[in-house]
Amino acid sequence: MYLPVIIQTMILAVRYRSLSLPLLANPKLTISGMVGVAKSELMMQAQNECQQAILDWYQFLVTNQPAAEQVADIMPLVKQQALDFPLVCKPDIGCRGSGVKLVKNSQQLAEVIASYPRGTSLLLQKLADYEPEVGVFYVKMPNQTQGKVVSLTFKDSPTVMGNGELTLEELVLLDPRASKLTHLYQERHPKRWQQVIPLGEVVRLVFSASHCRGAVFTDARAHITPELEQRIELIMTGLPEFYYGRLDVKYPDLDSLKRGENLQIVEINGASAESIHIWDKNTSFLEAVKTLMWQYRTLYKIGAYQRRRGFKTPGIGKLFKHLAIEKRLARYYPTTD
């Protein structure tokens, strides 16, 4: 699917005389948030409505202290920001849900911290009040006053329901989709894998709503409303010089989402973000390719405009440097919940 995108990128690089022009799309972010860029860098820039919509978070560095001592030092500072267990712990640098853990107590947090080398930046974030999650892809040309929501995608974490007779493994094997990803779910539920699940109990197979971790994506573009776009625009005015990316958003129900009400932002992804409706099983291969090609044409158009404004391209070497940083850190990431 990405081969046509690569070919188009080569053509665009020649036309615009730059291979790294997309790295100017969000000029206040290091390489526009393409890869290997800290989530905290973007969230620290958030102001007003954007800052309020992002779920509260706390960033810290792993030290040489025993993990339990680090937790004892961290938690009073975390609680000063009105945060407490359960919390979401995730690497500051990472993508596609890598290393995301739901920690319910100090012992679990210590176990997560112990898996990382000294100097790693980690985030603790408030657990959202709502279960449903949606990916909101936002694009705005620098010469325009209003951006646009170009993609909306439901992100559903798969579940199975116990019947009081079958084990978790047997329930997963009976599910048409989940049975294709058995290895992912067994790794996340080793203690319960051979246990009989009580009647009526719903087991959430993955916590992180990432497609590569087993979540199910469904095209929701039909639910984009003027009210939702207006709310997203108001939120994004609080993020300086941000023109291209995807918001991962929690919401209470579909009506609230369509009205743009009670939205809680988990994180905002930069230039490497995709319109994830392309991963809906009903999206054709041709439509997915067209969407990706449109995205990269848009990145080049935005980058070209930023260059005319006086921003300088960072160079392709910087991209590879940050890619290497992320790959090096990914070796230490614990299994995603």
From TrEMBL:
Signal peptide: none annotated. One of its GO terms (molecular function) is metal ion binding. The keyword Nucleotide-binding applies. Residues 52-294 form the ATP-grasp domain. It comes from the Bacteria. Keywords: ATP-binding, Ligase, Nucleotide-binding. This is D-alanine--D-alanine ligase. It comes from Saccharobesus litoralis.
